[in-house]
Automatic annotation (TrEMBL):
UniProt GO molecular function: dioxygenase activity
Originating organism: Oceanobacillus zhaokaii
A UniProt-annotated Pfam family: Glyoxalase
InterPro entries assigned: Extradiol_RC_dioxygenase, Glyas_Bleomycin-R_OHBP_Dase, Glyas_Fos-R_dOase_dom, VOC_core
Keyword Oxidoreductase: yes
SUPFAM superfamilies: Glyoxalase/Bleomycin resistance protein/Dihydroxybiphenyl dioxygenase (SSF54593)
Protein name (database record): Ring-cleaving dioxygenase
Entries under CDD domains matching the protein: PcpA_C_like
Domain VOC: 6-130, 151-268
Gene3D superfamilies: 2,3-Dihydroxybiphenyl 1,2-Dioxygenase, domain 1 (3.10.180.10)
Highest taxon above the source species: Bacteria
Presence of the UniProt keyword Amino-acid biosynthesis in the record: no
Length: 308
C-alpha cells in the first residue's frame, strides 16, 4: 500500500506581500526559500518559506493578492497550521508574541499544549513542543536554533464530510488512526515532520475562499515513480486527479477530497536548489523557463518586497 510521509507544503492566500514577508521571516523566523510567481496566474507572487533548505514538511507558501476580499475559515479548508518547536521553547515564544503585541491563547489537545494565534491576514497558527523536534539549522538575530521552528507539526482539517475525509486519509494515504478527543480525530503518518493530522468533527461554518484562508494542502510523494502510482490510485478510486503539473521544484497533482478540501500530492525532488545555489535561495525573483522572456514585465509590475 502507498503511504505518504506527511505534509509536503501548505499554501495560503494573503493580501500584502511585504506584510507577509515581514511576519514569516522576522516574527516566525522562517527562511524565504523561493520568490517566484504563481505559475497559473503569473501576475501574482508565489512566496515559499521554510527551513534552511526548504525541505518537505517545512514549507508554507503564499499567493499575495493585494485587493482580494477577505475569506472565511470554515469547512472545505485546512483550518489551522501547526508548527513544531523544540522542547522547552514555549516560554520563549510566549514572550516573543507579547513583544510583538500578538494576542495568543493556550489550548490542550491530545495531551499536547498549543500556543494559538493568528498571522496578520487572520490565518490560524499553532506552536507545539515535541520531544523529537530536531533543532533548526536556520537562525535569525533574534531566534536561535534552540528556540526556532523546526517545521510543521501537522494541520487541522475542517471537512464538510469528516467520515469521507477519513476514508481518503486511511485508504488512499495510508495514515494511521490514533484517537478521538473532544470533537477531533487524530491521524499519524510515517514522517518526522507534518505527521499529525487532526480532523475537526464538530459543526463549523462553510468556508469562503479569500485572503486569510488556506488554498490547499500538499502531501509528500518520494519520487516521480511513486507520484505516478498515486495518480493511478486516485483515478481507480474515482477521485478525478488533474494531470501531472511541473512546478519546477516538484511535480504536482490536485484533487478535491469529498469534504471539499483541495488536496495536492507533490514530489520531494528536485527541491528549491534546482535553479539557485543553496546558500542563495530566495534572494531574487526566479521564473520558470516558459516565463523568463517576461521577466522585465514582472519585475516592473509585481509589488516591490524589501528583503531584510
Amino acid at each position: 500500500m502507498l503511504t505518504t510521509a506527511g505534509i509536503h507544503h501548505i499554501t495560503a492566500i494573503v493580501n500584502d506581500p511585504q506584510v507577509n514577508f515581514d511576519f514569516y521571516t522576522k516574527v516566525m523566523g522562517l527562511r524565504l526559500v523561493k520568490k517566484t510567481v504563481n505559475f497559473d496566474r503569473p501576475e501574482v507572487y508565489h512566496l515559499y518559506f521554510g527551513n534552511e533548505a526548504g525541505d518537505p514538511g517545512t514549507i508554507i507558501t503564499f499567493f499575495p493578492w493585494q485587493k482580494l476580499p477577505k475569506g472565511r475559515i470554515g469547512t472545505g479548508q485546512v483550518g489551522t497550521t501547526s508548527y513544531v518547536i523544540p522542547k522547552g521553547a514555549s516560554s520563549f515564544w510566549r514572550n516573543r508574541l507579547n513583544q510583538y503585541s500578538i494576542t495568543y491563547t493556550i489550548a490542550a489537545r491530545f495531551a499536547e499544549e498549543y500556543i494559538q494565534f493568528q498571522d496578520p491576514d487572520g490565518l490560524q497558527i499553532e506552536l507545539v513542543e515535541r520531544e523529537d523536534a530536531q533543532n533548526s539549522k536556520w537562525e535569525t538575530d533574534e531566534i536561535k536554533a534552540e528556540h526556532a521552528i523546526t517545521g510543521f507539526a501537522g494541520a487541522t482539517l475542517y471537512s464538510a464530510q469528516p467520515n469521507l475525509t477519513v476514508e481518503v486519509l486511511e485508504s488512499i494515504f495510508g495514515m494511521e488512526f490514533i484517537e478521538e478527543e473532544h470533537g477531533y480525530l487524530r491521524y499519524k503518518t510515517s514522517g518526522s515532520l507534518g505527521n499529525m493530522i487532526d480532523i475537526k468533527i464538530t459543526p463549523s461554518v462553510r468556508g469562503l475562499a479569500g485572503a486569510g484562508t488556506i488554498h490547499h494542502i500538499a502531501w509528500r510523494a518520494k519520487d516521480d515513480e511513486e507520484h505516478e502510482k498515486w495518480r493511478e490510485l486516485l483515478e481507480k478510486n474515482g477521485y478525478k486527479p488533474t494531470e501531472i503539473k511541473d512546478r519546477n521544484y516538484f511535480k504536482a497533482i490536485y484533487f478535491y477530497e469529498p469534504g471539499g478540501i483541495l488536496f495536492e500530492i507533490a514530489t520531494d525532488p528536485p527541491g528549491f536548489a534546482v535553479d539557485e545555489y543553496p546558500e542563495k535561495i530566495g534572494e531574487k525573483l526566479m521564473l520558470p523557463p516558459w516565463l523568463e522572456q517576461k521577466r522585465k514585465e514582472f519585475e516592473e509590475t509585481l509589488p516591490h518586497i524589501k528583503v531584510h
